[in-house]
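Protein Record: Sequence and Backbone Structure Tokens
======================================================
Scope: a single protein chain, as residues and as a discrete description of its fold.
Tokens: labelled as protein backbone structure tokens, with as many entries as the chain has residues.
Position: the record begins directly beneath this header, with no further notes in between.
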Amino acid sequence: MPELKNRQFLDFEKPIKDLYDQIEQLKITSEKTKTDMSETIASLEQKVMETKLELTANMTPWQRVQLSRHPDRPYTLKYIEKMCTNFIELHGDRNVKDDKAMVGGFADLNGETVMIIGQQKGINTKMRQIRNFGMANPEGYRKALRLMRLAEKFNKPIITLIDTPGAYPGLEAEERGQGEAIARNIFEMIRLKVPVICVIIGEGASGGALGIGVGDKVFMMENTWYTVISPESCSSILWRTWDKKEIAAEQLRLTGTDMLNFGLVDGVIPEPAGGAHWDYDKAAEILKEYLIPVIQELKQISPEKRCEDRIEKFGKMGFWDEKAV
């Protein structure tokens, strides 16, 4: 995690920043004056924890969107590093090139060999450009499918970590078949004979998320969102301005709680106090504790039954009213 002095704070996190500033000032004063201020510092540290819990308990949908994009938030490779051992990254779609926005490979998760795949945004400006801000091209989705088929060949469970503002919308991506690549992944993932678990760890936007989002179980981390369009884009379409993005976020019903109520996800995974960006180790530990029993549960089901359940699960999503004409 970034050191406190290098941390970035969102607007609504200002109360936390103010408390940390007070703690830092007290430590400096204590050192200069040789005065014991440990009790006051401990009291402020407790106040920090309470403030984090209070903020995350009462956030608006737009604030959750902001938190899902927090620059200090852990991305796919960080979760892999913290949860797994012996990760072997595999590259390329064997057709065009290796898409750096999509990463994946075999890893050891608590003694279980799994195929873990996810979008990677990049941890600084240079890496974000290399990773294309987590927006995969068609070759990224084709690489993901190649790795899934490899996992199926060796009968290994698949875990996908979703964190993307959407599939890359550039001309070259469309020329190479972006829509077909995503549609192919959806079609093939429904029929995979191994357990598939999908987790939204950040942004879950549009077809970019769906391209690796079809599984036996789909979970969302607490401070993430999942919908067909970003609040900003929705606002620009409906109101011709981004200024209504908070209203759009509210109306899109994009939070984990909303998705759970709609039956579109199977559970919401809690995060450390204040969000995953405050404690990478704890965030990964919580996610790992969710994944291990689910993998064991799914392994007890026959491949044929898993495929049938997966088809039924996604086939019955949504609700509607029929009116007589």
The chain has two domains: 10-58, 65-315.
